[in-house]
Predict the 3D structure of the following.
Amino acid sequence: MHNIERSIVWICRHFNHEQILRLIAELVDILENKNPEFQPKDDFKEQHPNYREFSTNPLAPLDSAEIIKPKKT
């Protein structure tokens, strides 16, 4: 939480009242998914980087009648 407080102090030192209001409006748009160009960091993906990332084996199961060899490219 300390980093957020330091960020707020930094913003207040570098921007005037009007600029801070515009910044807040832009952040609200990002949180409401109105600005697809920017997306907040996804904590779930950072904690579980391999979730739903899988691949299937191109070879047939060992008990099948024919073993399919991978194509050379």
